[in-house]
Amino acid sequence: MKHSITLRRVMLSAAALVLMQQGATAWAGMPADAAAMSGAAGERALAGSMARADEQASVGAGQGDVAMLMQLIHDAQLVELRTTYNASYGASLFFYPPEMTYYVALFQSKHFWRVIRSQDEARSEAIYAGFVRQTEQLSQAAIRRTVLEAQKTFIERVIAMSEERARRLQADLAIARTQQARVDVDQRRAQGDAAALHAQEAQAQAQLRELQRQVDALQRATEAGLPGAGR
């Protein structure tokens, strides 16, 4: 801010010198009364200009560079020359044409937290390059955190999908086991029924053979003494 105030005063002094020279030339051809009035008016105008400049300088001196930069951005007085982002961190280089002044800003999430002002272009570019390197360093942890959070979310999603797959397989296995148990019961019942039927068939066969023998015996007894009997 001291450089800005000094620059204003130098410019005003030069303007005053020019006005005085022009006034001296004009006064040479003017009446004494008119020259005196013109000189008084010029002095009042010059005094007013210097008062306004001092007032602006005092207002600027009461503000920090961060507040000044924000005000200039709000008033659309700056030209944005460069901006670099790294995660939520960023660096910007602005130019304020009326004062030939550069503003170099370091910010996070669009909140300025360091501002350097200079009228030296090379110095401003060097500061900007340093701020860019600083954003790279500051963003490493944030970038790493973002990647780890993404990995964690991905792994959790894979785990959830695996758990869901396991639940489906367990449900299928439970159904298969239940059905298998039913099949086993049916098989044992069928085998028992088959064994019982086989026993019943064997018993029926034995009974049939016994009845056949009895029939044959009765047949022989009935035909005893008849011709051809016993054949």
- The portion of residues forming beta strands comes to 5-15%
Q: Examine the coordinates and then state which fold CATH places here, giving the name of the CATH topology of the domain at 66-148.
A: Signal recognition particle alu RNA binding heterodimer, srp9/1
The gyration radius over C-alpha positions equals 56 Å
Helix content: over 70%
Please name the defining characteristics of this protein.
single chain, 231 residues, alpha+beta, Signal recognition particle alu RNA binding heterodimer, srp9/1, four-stranded antiparallel β-sheet, 4 helices, 4 strands, disordered N terminus
Would you write up a description of this structure?
This protein has 231 residues and is α+β, with helices and mostly antiparallel strands. Among the domains are: 2-62; 66-148, Signal recognition particle alu RNA binding heterodimer, srp9/1 (2-Layer Sandwich), CATH 3.30.720. It has helices at residues 2-28, 32-61, 65-74, 121-222; strands spanning 79-86, 89-96, 101-108, 111-118. The longest helix is centred in the C-terminal third of the chain and has 102 residues, at 121-222. The protein starts with a helix and ends in a 9-residue tail after the last helix.
Summarize the structure.
The chain has 231 residues and is an alpha+beta fold. 73% of the residues lie in helices and 14% in strands.
